[in-house]
Every structure is written in C-alpha cells, then in structure tokens.
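User: Fold this; tokens only.

Assistant: Input:
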Amino acid sequence: MIRFNVPFVLASRSPRRRILLDGLGLNPEIRPSDVAEDIQPGVPPGVLVERIALDKAVDIAQMVPDGLVLG
C-alpha cells in the first residue's frame, strides 16, 4: 500500500474509481462531493468530465485543505 503524508481523498461516489485506486494500493478516503453532474449540450464529453472532476476536487479540498484530493 502506498502511504501519503497527507490525507488522500476521492471526491467521487464512483465505485469503479475506488476499485482502480484500491488496486493500485492507494486506498483513498471517500468523501463524495455534491457537485451536480449535469450534461451541457455542445460541450465535448472529455471537457465535461474534466470540468466535473475539477469542480468535485475543489469542493472537497475546501474541507481537507492539507489533503490530496482527486475529483
């Protein structure tokens, strides 16, 4: 298992992301964000996914200022 000197937090409810991170030995603390995952017409899927992930990470990072947060 990889250990961080700061809290490592996953700001998502995605079971797949948790499985992937656990499989890498990262074992994040789960703190799901309530950021809306609304589809925005005309926005490319890749851009939308990046924006939502960033918004989630920023949302949770405010509660874990000394942590490493993945959206």
